[in-house]
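#lab-general

N.A. 3:47 PM
ok so I finally got the sequence cleaned up, no stray characters, all 264 residues accounted for. can someone with queue access submit it? mine expired

B.Y. 3:52 PM
send it over

N.A. 3:53 PM
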Amino acid sequence: MDLGIKGKWALVGGASKGLGFGCAQALAQEGVNVVMVARGADALQDAAKALRSHGTQILVVAQDITTEAGREAIWGVAGGPGKNFDIVVTNAGGPPPGDFRDWDRDAWIKAVDANMLTPIELIRATVDGMAARGFGRVVNITSSAVKSPIDILGLSNGARSGLTGFVAGTSRSSQLAGRNVTINNLLPGAFDTDRLRSNQKTIATKAGKSVEEVSEARRKTIPAQRFGTAQEFGETCAFLCSQQASYITGQNILIDGGAYPGAF
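B.Y. 4:20 PM
back already:
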C-alpha cells in the first residue's frame, strides 16, 4: 500500500533506538524525509546512517528535546523544514520507575515537563502550519499504563494521562480535524526495548528474583506470548501518518499483544 506521504517531512523524537527508531525507519521506508532527535550523538549518527539507504533526507539533531534550546535547534537545523513539519512523532522517553514516596516536587515537575509539556510545545509549534497546508499528522508515543496503570510507573501514569486529556480536546478542534490535521496517541505495551529491560530489572530487585524470571513471567501474561518489536510499532505509526488515516483522530491506539483485558 502506498501511504501517500513520500517527500513529506517528519520530526521523530528519541529516534536513535527503540520505538522512536522504529518509527523513523518506517517513515523513511515510505519516502519521508526525517529529522531524528536524541541526546546521544554517536548512537544518533549510527541510526541515521542505517536509514539513509532509503534515499530520503535524514537529518540529525543531538539535543534534549525537552528543553527550549533543544527545540530551537530542531527548528534551525540546516536543510530542515524549520517549523513546517508535516509529521511529528513525540517521544521523550519515560521517567524512572520507583516508589511514589520517594518522589519530590522536582521529580514530578521533570516528568510532567518531559512527557506532557514537551509534546504540547511541539504540537503548538507545528499544527497551525499543518492546517494552513491542509495536511498534518501528530503521533504521541505514550504508554499502555495510561489505560492500565503500573504501580512503579506513577510518574509516567500521571504525566502521560495529562497529555492524553489534552489531546482528547485539542484533536477535535474543527480548526485542525477539519483541515486534515490529526493527533493520536500510540500506547505501547511490552516491547523489547531498553525501557522494558530497565523496568524488569527494577521489579526483579524489588522482588528478589532474577531478571530472566521476571521477563518470562511477564511474557506469559501476554496473549500473543511474546514482546513486541520496534519494527511493527513503527509500521503502525507510519499508517497513522498516512493519507489513508485522515479519519482517525483523538484516539488512543493500544499495541500490547492483547494484554489489556478490558472491552473499552
